[in-house]
Write a structure and sequence with these properties.
- It contains 6 helices and 7 strands.
- By secondary structure, the protein is of the alpha+beta class.
- The strands form 2 sheets. The protein has a 5-stranded mixed sheet.
- Helix 1 runs antiparallel to helix 2.
- The radius of gyration is 20 Å and the shape is globular.
Length: 234
């Protein structure tokens, strides 16, 4: 494959990998919702009181809407609309990405937190591609903490200046000194379970919008990966 086509190929491969990851999570969550819907429906009988019918109906409606929203989220992410740009609230996208990963974060017995400061937090970009970057950074933090139950992932967005910064921090073991130069090299840190292209794709996508993705060790241990983009209007 020609070198010029490599970034596009990496983007597609990364999006497919993320879609597969999100699909696995979505299947679990939709299945949980369907079990609640099924159980609530089975408990409705001709002898049910109006109060029970009301409560069960509410549960069925809430979980049906949840299942529908999950499937819509997955469908929207899988759709290729990479040529469209608009003003994007980086805080909203970051929070959306963190919400999409909550099932896995809980399964790994990790903690997560979100914080947004400063206004404005809008950038000019493609919503799905920025979501792809945010997901890559969060999934990277999950992998760093996979064998560390109780670990914490912090997602924050800071605006109010010429740059808007989305940061993902973890309190894991950090990145070995010899691995730092390889962080953004496609495949350099691949393993049996992942392609090792997420960070490279994140940086490549950020550069499309005059942005950057950087790494820094945290002073108290762990890693900080940050997406910086020009604020809208700058």
């Amino acid at each position: 494959m020609a070198e010029a086509s490599t970034p596009e190929w990496l983007e597609r491969a990364n999006r497919l990998a993320l879609t597969s990851t999100l699909l696995a999570t979505t299947v679990h969550e939709v299945n949980n919702a369907l079990q609640v819907i099924s159980g609530s429906a089975e408990m409705l009988t001709p002898a049910s009181t109006p109060d029970i019918i009301h409560r069960r109906s509410d549960a069925i409606g809430a979980h049906a809407r949840r299942a529908s929203a999950l499937l819509a989220e997955l469908s929207a992410f899988a759709k290729d609309d990479s040529t469209n740009t608009t003003q994007v609230d980086l805080a909203q996208v970051a929070q959306r990405a963190l919400t999409m990963r909550q099932y896995t974060i809980a399964r790994l017995k990790l903690e997560s937190a979100f914080d947004a400061t400063g206004e404005p937090r809008a950038v000019v970009a493609n919503t799905r591609l920025i979501l792809q970057i945010a997901l890559n950074l969060i999934v990277n933090a999950e992998r760093a903490l996979a064998s560390q139950p109780g670990g914490r992932i912090g997602v924050s967005v800071a605006g109010g200046g010429q740059q808007v910064v989305l940061a993902v921090e973890d309190d894991g073991p950090g990145v070995a000194t010899e691995a730092v130069p390889k962080l953004f090299v496609p495949g350099a840190l691949a393993s049996e379970t992942h392609l090792g292209i997420g960070l490279a794709v994140a940086r490549h996508l950020a550069e499309r919008f005059a942005g950057a993705v950087s790494y820094a060790p945290r002073s108290n241990g762990g890693s900080r990966f940050a997406l910086s983009l020009p604020a809208a209007g700058m």
